Structure formats: C-alpha cells, structure tokens
Amino acid sequence: MLTKMMLMMGLVAFLVAQMNAASISIGPQAGYYKAQDADKGSYMGGLACRLKLLPVLGAEASINYRQEEYAHGALTVRSWPVMVTGLIYPLPIVYGAIGAGWYNLTFDYDQSRVSLLADETTQAFGWHLGGGVDIPLGSIMKLTGDLRYVFLDYDFKDIPGSGDLKSDFFVITVGLLFSF
What we know:
Elements: H1 2-20, E1 23-35, E2 42-54, E3 57-70, E4 75-91, E5 94-109, E6 120-136, E7 141-152, E8 169-179
Antiparallel strand pairs: 1-2, 1-8, 2-3, 3-4, 4-5, 5-6, 6-7, 7-8
C-alpha cells in the first residue's frame, strides 16, 4: 500500500513538473506551396500559435491566406485555411506533425472564358502530415520550419479540360514564434 502511494505521489510530482514546463508561443508564418495540378506554385502567409504541453507533445493552430490558379487561369481559388495540428517531438527540436484543416474557399471563374459558371464560396475539409524543426533563438523566440503534405479534394466545376484536376499539395513553411 505504501509503495503504491509513493508511486502515485511520484507520478503526480512528475506530471506537475511537466505541466510547469508547458509554453505557448505565437507569431507569423510564411510558406510556399504548389497544388498537384495548379498552374504554378504560390506563396502564402498567416499566423500560428503553438502550445507545448510536454517535452514530447505539442499542438498548433494556424490561419493562412493562399491563392492558386487552375486550368490555365480559368479558375482562381482563394482560401483561408484554419488548421489544427498535433506535434510529437522525438528530439527536443525535431517534430512530426499530423492534423486537419477547414478551408473557406472562393472559386473565382474567369467569366471571359467560362461565362456559364458563377463564382461561389464554399468550405472543404482536408488533413495533413509532415515534420519540421523548432530552433531556439534565445529564451523567448524560435525559428520554425516544416514540410507538410496536405490531402485536400476540391469539388471543381465542369471547366473544359478540368475533369481530373488534383488539389493535394506540399507546403514548406517558416515561422518566427514568440513565447509567453
């Protein structure tokens, strides 16, 4: 009985010490991405907030703005992805990432080329996985960089020649996070 009680007290002391090590950080992020069948790659920007719960476990919430063109400019897709990501740190500065995103989308059709389709705003759900690094730049600042693959299936309308367009993409991001 005494051994169990001492083990429980040790576990509680360990968890309290880990929770005191928790940190929150926020800052800008920028990235480059190219959707699989987009006409070309594009830059994006936004804001990220990270919470490191334990030395090996964290979470990130982010919002960005991105824009891409499909079908040789016949369609421009603008989106504000809101993403939530779980972070697992096998090493203090290296993490794996897996999460989901809600994409608020505007499909803007070039009316001179596809006048029968009206612009529309819709939402899509996607998920992502990847990995990266957190490099400390002092006691309250860190540089982040990661590579993620995003699984995202846009519901394209019938633009001539767009039957098999794919919208999955790789994204490379860098960020500068400030801790509280």
